[in-house]
Amino acid sequence: MASGSADTIRSALKIRPHVPPDVAEWYPLWNSLLSHVHAAQSIDLLSMRAKSFTICVLTALFLWGARGQDRDATPHKIQFITVDTNVRLEVLDWGGSGRPLVLVTGLGVTAHYFDEFAIKLASSYHVYGITRRGFGKSSAPQPAETTYTADRLGDDVIAVLDALKLNRPVLVGHSVGGEELSSVGSRHPEKVAGLVYLDAGYGYAFYDPTVGWSNIDLAELRKKLELLQPGKGPNDTRPLINEILDVLLPRFEKDLKKDAAYEGALPPSMIEGTSTSVPPASQAIMAGGQKYTRIPVPILAIFAVPHDMGPAINNDPQLRAKFDVQDIARVGAQASAFEKGLPTARVVRLPHAKHFVFQSNEADVLREIAAFINGLR
User: Fold this and answer.
1) Is there a domain that residue 120 lies in?
2) In terms of DSSP bridges, do strands 299-304 and 194-198 run parallel, antiparallel, or are they unpaired?
3) What pTM does this model have?
4) Which of 88, 149, 152, 261 has the most CB atoms in a 10 Å sphere around its CB?
5) Distance from C-alpha of 280 to C-alpha of 274, rounded to nearest angstrom
6) Burial class (CB within 10 angstroms; exposed 0-12, middle 13-18, buried 19+) of 121
7) To 10 degrees, what angle do helices 214-226 and 249-264 make?
């Protein structure tokens, strides 16, 4: 990526030429790279876009489709389980009999948003739900280097399973909850009978380099850039610079172009209306993603593709068609990569379902879960 491409990228992505404090701290790294490869100007602009994109889209998906969040509308028991030093998680128990099933939430919500869905599941399974650290009544430790990484969150889930003495439960995760499922399934496959991803099988849950994922690729790029700081990396930086130039920068630029095309298919009201205030725990979780490429357990992955994004898009046929093209290209590619890369996975695609697929397509999801669990040993 030549240094002159920054102006083209700025114009194409409509990025204003200013840098917030959290990005400015990286200028020494980028300037170090600039002296070698003349690419730093592009990186700072692109990284701003990468960090905002996932939050923007996840917020839009959550705002359209969520209903009954935290209403506490169904009977259940609540207990608090210690999973780490000074960290306790709220765990809900909706009862039921049969195989244990544990629900893992998306970003920024509590297990109570599963209330109506959990009761339907409890007719066949013993259903639990976990409110992740940082949210609701669960402990919220200050973000630090390892307090909100994907594997740390996965360890929290394992601690809950052990405390409840659950024998090989099925984990069901929504949205970002997919990273906890992948953490557990990749490192402790003996602990679970199966994993169910509810529109949760994105790059934070299964990483394919041909598809990429902005946050994951940005984190790797930053780590490599840090090694260019004096005293941080090898004396001979040529292999590192070649890796950055030949692999990491092109991959990240590809991510950002896809992100921009996807965001460009959304109406301005869905972007401008989303909050730019992101809780520290959410920021830490986004920054703590990890690459999962091997998950040797039975898997059911349900993707909403293309998504139902609500009346702002649905009421405009041209906008609907434009968004569907982008969503199918982006989500469809990830679903295909998930299917190809994980031989134990069954992938189900539900067209025009909401991100809260267990609400918009409850009957479909319940049917697929039942068939999946019935086939487990």
Assistant:
1) no
2) parallel
3) 0.84
4) 152
5) 17
6) buried
7) 150
